[in-house]
Amino acid sequence: MMLTVMMSLWAVVAARRRPWTLVARGGSDAAEVRASAALKGLESGMKSVEGLIVEIEAELANGKPYDGTLGSKFDEIYASGVSAFVSECNDPEARALFETALDARLELLYMKHVSATRARLLAQFKPTEPFDEVDAKFEVAAEAAKRAGAPWDSAAERGALKAVLTELKSRADRASTVGAKAAAQQSSYMQLFQTYQAQIQQLQAAVQSAPPQVALAYRVPDTDVSISATRQADRTTLTLGCVPDDSAPLLGPNGFVKGVTPANVGLTLNLHV
Questions:
Q1: How many other C-beta atoms can be found within 10 angstroms of the C-beta atom of residue 54?
Q2: What is the dihedral of CA 255, 261, 265, 271, to 10 degrees?
Q3: How far apart are CA 85 and CA 99, in angstroms?
Q4: Among residues of the chain, what percentage have pLDDT more than 90?
Q5: Angstrom distance (rounded) from CA 56 to CA 51
Q6: Where is the signal peptide (predicted)?
């Protein structure tokens, strides 16, 4: 890069030189002096910023985001390089060429930063995130990385970001639509299954009759002892009862209670077989 700029400067300065003339004692004309000064200025200017430029290149390659700080660094590098050039050469045309070359190299770093910013925003993007917010983040990062007064443009990277975001959102919308349809269909199938299940249960309850039940009861004559047995659903229940003597007048001739009173209290024993 430095060699290319040096050759360009030399070509501009050499084009302005007068035809070569032989100077008796080895002197040089003014054009040669200006060309030499321009080359010294170029070398001095580039050397003063080369380390900083290489450092930023390495950091960008390693993924450093440089949020809001790269523009100020570019300002410092540009001012330092121009100052070093002017200290060796004050030719306006040579200075303009140097500034153009330095600005072009800084713009290259700027475009690398913008491209990395676009990739980072895409990696962090979520379909639920508003499109305008991502675009605004990119624009803020791109503007913050510009050198003051530089005519750098990030429209191409911004357009690429918008195109990718549009495609990602379109895919997310299609996936969401398919998922919603699948969920609705599954819910419909579940409701239909539950309806069929309820109908089957109702049908089973209608066709199934109550289990048969057999019951027998016997009272031992002239005693307080009564025995009853019940058979239902493969289960037998035996009940042994004994009514106290003081309640015997309440019973009829066949042992049935004539009324419900506190005297109708006895002992009952249930045996389940």
A1: 10
A2: 60
A3: 9
A4: 19
A5: 9
A6: 1-15
Domain that holds residue 129: 2-18+27-172
- Do 41 and 101 lie in one domain? The reply is yes
Rounded to the nearest 5 degrees, what angle is found at the Cα of 206, between the Cα atoms of 211 and 196? 130
- 45 and 151 co-located in one domain: yes
Same domain, 145 and 263: no
Domain final residue, candidates 172, 198, 227: 172
pLDDT digits (tens, 9 = 90+) for 239-265: 877 765 555 555 555 555 555 555 555
User: Are the CB atoms for 211 and 232 separated by under 8 Å?
Assistant: yes
pLDDT in tens, 9-39: 445 444 443 333 333 334 456 778 788 888 8
Examine the domain organization and report whether 109 and 224 are in the same domain: no
Give the model's pLDDT for residue 9: 46
Please say whether the beta carbons of 96 and 86 come within 8 A.
no
pTM (whole model) above 0.70? no
**Segment holding 241, helix H or strand E:** strand 235-242
Same structural domain for residues 236 and 105?
no
Q: Which of 79, 72, 70, 82 is nearest to 111 (CA)?
A: 70
User: Tens digit of pLDDT for each residue in 232-244?
Assistant: 767 888 887 776 5
Beta bridge partners of 257: 251
Q: Which residue, of 172, 205, 233, is where some domain finishes?
A: 172
Please tell me the predicted confidence (pLDDT) of residue 79. 93
DSSP 141-158: HHHHTSPTT-----HHHH
pLDDT tens per residue, range 60-93 = 888 887 777 899 999 999 999 999 999 988 888 8
Asked if 230 contacts 236 with a C-beta cutoff of 8 angstroms, the reply is yes
Q: How many domains does the chain divide into?
A: 2
What pLDDT score does 246 carry?
A: 57
